[in-house]
Amino acid sequence: MRAPFRVRVFDKSRNFKFQLSDPETCSVTLRHLGKSTGSLVVPLNHYRAPALMTPGTRVTIDYLVRPLGQYSDEGSWLRVFTGPLWTRQGQGGLRDGVLTLQLEDDIRVLDGVLAWPDPTQPVNSQGVVSRNKSGPAETVIKDFFRENAVTRLGLPITVATDLGRGQDVSASLRFDALVDALNPLAEVGGLGMTLRQGADGTLVFDVYETTDRSAHPLSEASGTLIDWAFTSTGPTATRAIVGGGGEGILRGFTRTIATARENEWGIKEEVFVDASGATTPEDLAQAAAEALTATQAGAGFAITASENDIVRYGKNLFVGDTVSIQITPTFTVTDYLRACTLSWTDNEGLRVLPEIGSQTASEEPNAALARVISKMYAGLRKLRSNK
């Protein structure tokens, strides 16, 4: 069976150059509300190596999704990754050495774009404190992205048609990095985000809805679960104290309690959330919800799955979906698929490695806590810089 990947190489202007048909290894790790990454390994003396070393070189990776019940080389191609070759590493001698290419997904753009209070004005003429928006999550996310990445910075990106998907959200932004601002909005709204190069070379920013697929658990009995490892940690807070606008004794505060969490764990622990830019009670409630989501009990599963007649990535399984893992006949865990690695080597063939939950199975509790802290970093940075 041939490799289930199609790798095409482009220059920095997204002009097609060639198809890389024979990498020794091809691997992509797809992430929900995170930056997907990938790697390619080719011989160091590969005749395409000089082109692959050119700065700005990009790739698109398509994954062959075979129909359920079939294992032939027939199927449809699903675009799972587009982005630049970001790191290059060579190892070994010229005759037997290898060139490893590390890839970063185009969604990395969110890391380097700020949400200005007034994106229509020069930076020294910002006449408002913040940019405030509310409405369906898709609408709010695409408005912030369009105003700052496309209109203000002029990045050559098309924003897909707004379909008004997702729960209603609100946001008040002031020079926040889009990655810090939009990921929580998407999570609350039940959406994910993509920035992909299309067949015509156009970069398109869009969102996708997640799906609950927990009715059909992955299990050893069904042949979809080969191996697994897990870790879990308790919650780091059960109550969110949110500080709204105002100064001193005039500042408003709210308290939100995760009662079910307190009853389950027998604890009462508080976390403070600075929401000084909030303008409505809904803004305060959303800030509390985000904080309690970030501090909930963490659980992670790293599993080795087998594609069979029941489960196949790209057919009935996608990152962001809610899935169930049946460890024993009486022990089933349900959470969302936050990442999935698709890899191919000549020796091992195809491997599908989903990651379930809010942390990886190898994380120690301190590492899991660090992830929570980093998620709240944007608010802390704003408080320290007093923007």
Short recap of the structure:
With 387 residues, this protein is an alpha+beta fold.
Structure in words:
It is built from seven helices and 23 strands. The protein is of the alpha+beta class. Strands 1, 2, 3, 4, 5, 6, 7, 15, 16, 20, 21, 22 and 23 form a 13-stranded mixed β-sheet that branches. Helix 2 packs antiparallel against helix 3 (178-189). It is globular, with a radius of gyration of 23 Å.
Provide the fold topology:
Layout: E1 5-10, E2 16-20, E3 25-31, E4 37-43, H1 49-52, E5 58-65, E6 76-91, E7 98-104, E8 114-115, E9 131-136, H2 137-152, E10 157-159, E11 168-173, E12 176-177, H3 178-189, E13 191-197, E14 203-209, E15 218-219, E16 225-233, E17 239-243, E18 253-257, H4 259-265, E19 270-274, H5 281-294, E20 298-305, E21 322-328, E22 331-345, E23 349-357, H6 365-375, H7 377-385
Parallel strand pairs: 10-14, 15-21, 17-19
Antiparallel strand pairs: 1-2, 1-5, 3-4, 3-22, 4-7, 5-6, 6-7, 8-12, 9-11, 13-14, 16-20, 17-18, 20-23, 21-22, 22-23
Residue-averaged pLDDT, rounded?
85
Major β-sheet annotation: 13 strands, mixed
Order of helix and strand elements from N to C terminus: EEEEHEEEEEHEEEHEEEEEEHEHEEEEHH
Q: Please state the oligomeric state of the protein chains shown.
A: single chain
Radius of gyration: 23 Å
Helix percent reads 10-25%
What's the number of helices? 7
Q: Identify low-pLDDT runs.
A: 359-387
Strand residue content: 35-45%
Shape: globular
Q: How would you classify the helix and strand content by structural class?
A: alpha+beta
Distance between the termini: 57 Å
Strand tally, please? 23
Instruction: Tell me the domain tally.
Output: 4
